[in-house]
Amino acid sequence: QTAITDLNFDELWILPSSDRLDKKISVSGEERFDMLSLMVKDLFSDSKTPIKVKRYELDRNKQTTTFDTKNALKKMYPDIEFHFLIGSDILPEIKTKWVRGEEVWQTTNFILAYRPGLKKDATKSELPPHCTLIENGSKLIGLSSTDVRSYIFKNGATENTVSQFTSPSVAKYVSEKKLY
After folding, report:
1. What distances in angstroms separate CA 116 from CA 86, 112, 151, one per listed residue?
2. In this structure, how many other beta carbons lie within 10 angstroms of the beta carbon of residue 19?
3. pTM
4. How many CA atoms lie within 13 A of 175 on its CB side?
5. What is the tens place of the pLDDT at every residue in 134-168?
6. How many CB atoms lie within 10 A of CB 92?
7. Within 13 Å of residue 56, how many CA atoms lie on the same side as its CB?
8. What is the largest CA-CA distance in the chain?
9. Euclidean distance between CA atoms 91 and 97, whole angstroms
10. CA–CA separation, 157 vs 115, rounded Å?
């Protein structure tokens, strides 16, 4: 919400990832696509900035890396300047754990949503060279998606359990499909 409010985008694209090299994704790409579509409808139906859930990575039918996605999008849309919105808590992983991480760090436009773990006074050398840090008005949540999935797994995928973390339609979807 803060990124949409504070930054001037033509559109915001959400790309659920396909299989990844660094972790096993327990919910299918189709289910994640459906949940994201429901979330956008629930939370952003009146947004002045178009928000679109795109199937690009899911339709590639192979493992995905940010490096490959960035380069493929640039090739498909040479006149568009893409920015990748990420939580600042994953910054330490980019150079060391991502495929071609140093190159991604140096060449990718990042929008960093401030998350606990990034020093408020981070120096330029601690941030990618092409980044914007958004923090004004952001709700700082010390909770990761892994924490949410673990909580749901431990406490059950009921609408009540899930609704505290997501939109009503997504909570219903997760409950009905018994995800996580």
Report:
1. 13, 12, 19
2. 15
3. 0.84
4. 16
5. 865 545 556 677 778 888 888 888 888 888 888 99
6. 12
7. 18
8. 47
9. 10
10. 26
**At residue 167, what is the residue type?**
S
Give CA separation, 106 vs 6, 83, 100, 120, 130, in Å.
24, 13, 10, 21, 7
pLDDT digits (tens, 9 = 90+) for 43-102: 999 999 999 999 999 998 778 889 999 999 999 999 999 999 988 888 889 999 999 999
In the structure encoding, which two tokens stand for residue 107, read together?
């060449």
Mapped to the 3 state alphabet, what secondary structure does the chain carry?
A: CHHHHHCCCCCEEECCCCCCCCCCCCCCHHHHHHHHHHHHHHHHCCCCCCEEECCCCHHHCCCCCHHHHHHHHHHHCCCCCCCEEEEHHHHHHHHHHCCCHHHHHHHCCEEEECCCCCCCCCCHHHCCCCEEEECCCCCCCCCCHHHHHHHHHHHCCCHHHHHCCCCHHHHHHHHHHCCC
Q: What is the dihedral of CA 12, 34, 72, 87, to 10 degrees?
A: 60
